[in-house]
Amino acid sequence: MKIIHFTYNTSGGAGKVAVHLHKLFLKNGFESALINTEQQEPEENIYTIPALNRTFRKIINRTRYYLFRIYARIRYNRKQGFSFNYNYNYRGLQFNEIKEAIPFTPDLIFLHWISDFILPEHITAMEIYYKCPIIWRYNDLAPVTGGCHYPGICENYKTECGSCPALSSKKRKDHAFKHWHLKKQLFDASNITIINSTKETEAAFKRSPIFINKKQEFIRNSLNEELLNTKHKNKAKQQLNIKESTKVVFWGASHIQEERKGFSYFIEALHQLAAEYTEDLLIIISGRKPAALNPHIPFPHTYTGLLSYEQLILHYKAADLVAVSSIEDGGPMMIVEAMMCGTLVVSFETGLAKELVISGKTGFLVPKANSNELKNGIKYILNLPGDKRENMMHNCIHLTKQLYGEEQEINSYRQLFKKLLQVQDI
Fold first, then answer.
1. At 187, phi and psi to the nearest 5?
2. Structural domains in the chain, sorted by start
3. What is the pLDDT of residues 337-368, one digit of tens each?
4. 163 contacts 185 by C-beta, under 8 angstroms
5. What is the Rg, in whole angstroms, of the alpha carbon atoms belonging to the chain?
6. 137: helix, strand or coil
7. Percentage of residues in the chain having pLDDT higher than 70
8. Pairing between strand 281-288 and 301-305?
């Protein structure tokens, strides 16, 4: 069985999930290769498209990218709170270049987070050329919209995009409308299979006119239990030079200032907490931080920048709780990762939190965008007695292993492959 994966990069959260699935297939006897846009350290069967690494091509791509951003800003007054993807092929990527980068003829093609990389017309071309099943294991709502990764309160995608609030557009046949209809036209003739991994995004895809008639499966993304566990958890604070008696609240996002990650709600919750909690407390914040972003935080705190996966796990283990203030999210996977390390989670009621964070059992779930309740959840977890905390830690580990174990995921894919390829055994 030969499988090709496409993902934008291998460094972001979505890319890491794609790499994990690629390695899981290798570990279970499949021939798997992953193709992305960024040259990384040499790793087993992970490739880039050679043409994208040529110096002149990189200069041209970057120039096209910024010219199109200038054009888009002149034409549309894009709202800062929306992550809108124009999906303009500024790379000039041709199907022949994609084809030449594929190291073997695949039996299956997996798409992951492919914005600004693999376009709908590329997907159609691959399906026609390779005549094999294509599976899209997405991470956000970009496939069902005319460009938004997360549409906020806008529900246009349920009928057709247009008059797009993300673009401050009053025009029905705007960029979002045209892109939505291009997707629908191309995918109407496709046999693509959709993999849902959270209940929230599953509901959105099943409502989407673009994918409503497509095969859809629910398979959760497993995580690496060799790394995500409670081993050496009792030494994690010591490794980070934190006193054992110091309580630690950990918050993280790839881009701290990204509005949907809700950093401002977290800071507001800390200000409210400061009036009620006087014990030794350290706030650790990870992710890319603009130099101009320096909010007042009423507790000792540190910014780590982006962490390697191993360092991220160490911080999970050192934390007394992980705070998640996202107001829109397909995950975040850090909820599952933290819980697999036996760390309790306080989260807004969004994404995976609605399935995993159970108040009083695995953490504390609070209404979305409510800083006061977020503060109450943080305070509740910090004040837990030892026996109650231990019991909740065991609940976290049990629930995540039950739902996110590697064996469950690989068995689910084996069954799906049998159906798609119409074979008896894989």
1. -80, -20
2. 2-222+406-421 (3.40.50.2000), 233-404 (3.40.50.2000)
3. 999 999 999 999 998 999 999 999 999 999 99
4. no
5. 22
6. strand
7. 97
8. parallel
